Amino acid sequence: MRVLVKLSGEALSGEGRKGFDPERVSYLTSEIKKVVEEGYRVGIVVGAGNLFRGIELRGLSRERADQIGLLGTVMNAVYLKDHFEREGLKTKIFSQIVNLPDVESVSYDSIESAIENGFVLIFAGGTSNPFFTTDTAAVLRAKEMKAQIIVKATKVDGIYDKDPKRFSDARKIERLTFSEAMKMRIEVMDAEAFALCKKLGITVRVINFFEPGSLLRALKGENIGSIVLPD
Ligand SMILES: Nc1ncnc2c1ncn2[C@@H]1O[C@H](COP(=O)(O)OP(=O)(O)OP(=O)(O)O)[C@@H](O)[C@H]1O
Ligand SMILES: O=c1ccn([C@@H]2O[C@H](COP(=O)(O)O)[C@@H](O)[C@H]2O)c(=O)[nH]1
């Protein structure tokens, strides 16, 4: 089974923190290793909330702020590759936005060959365009690697009728469709990403990545977090 894991940048720093926390990265690496050892083929789209989010950079044009955000995703990818390889996970980074020795340009043939050869794939540089987020990139890359599911690995344990970090009376919704998610203006992923999932027929499960074993349990079909299904 092929899975695209959308990792929040904060998985590398700890919630609400910036930079890299080696303990968090070591935990993240062990969670990915567990699923690789079970035979799952893994692609990762990593965000950059631990470094830069374009919208948070004041005094810059949005285009330039987003370019800085995009470069943050590349930094995270290079950081993760180093940690993954120390733990014996063969890893390749794909991106369209930089020319670095550790980064390959995206091609369907090289993606397929890397998956077939047991590499973990890290897709960096989002969609390559400003005004998007890595959620939308996750959907595009999931389609390109023929993933059966996207797991959004985040800091909340599923989808709620409103943001559970802001509203203590938020109610969890275990199962919904993309149309329902868009109608309810659910913000756990951006609307562009939900619309693309609906169009491409890709399922998303939202889990709390900070709960040990949650990724593997989700892939084994346990009913954890929330699932969003094509209509
Ligand atoms: N209805 C909702 N249900 C669940 N979570 C929600 C909802 N609305 C907003 N959120 C928020 O969405 C956030 C999930 O996004 P997260 O920070 O993981 O992703 P990201 O922005 O893609 O990552 P990054 O840290 O890399 O920018 C959570 O912090 C959660 O509080
Ligand atoms: O397609 C994309 C993806 C991302 N960006 C910029 O990068 C940062 C970090 O991504 P997150 O998804 O927020 O973690 C984002 O805030 C944008 O500034 C982009 O421009 N295009």
From TrEMBL:
Catalyzes the reversible phosphorylation of UMP to UDP. It holds the Pfam family AA_kinase. HAMAP family: PyrH_B. Homohexamer. It is found in: Cytoplasm. Its main location: cytoplasm. CDD domains: AAK_UMPK-PyrH-Ec. The keyword Ion transport does not apply. PANTHER family: URIDYLATE KINASE, URIDYLATE KINASE PUMPKIN, CHLOROPLASTIC. The gene is pyrH. One of its GO terms (biological process) is UDP biosynthetic process. Residues 1-208 form the Aspartate/glutamate/uridylate kinase domain. Its EC number is 2.7.4.22. Transmembrane segments: none annotated. InterPro entries: AceGlu_kinase-like_sf, Asp/Glu/Uridylate_kinase, Uridylate_kinase, Uridylate_kinase_bac. It catalyses: UMP + ATP = UDP + ADP. UMP binds at residues 66, 127-134. This is Uridylate kinase. GO terms for cellular component: cytoplasm. Belongs to the UMP kinase family.
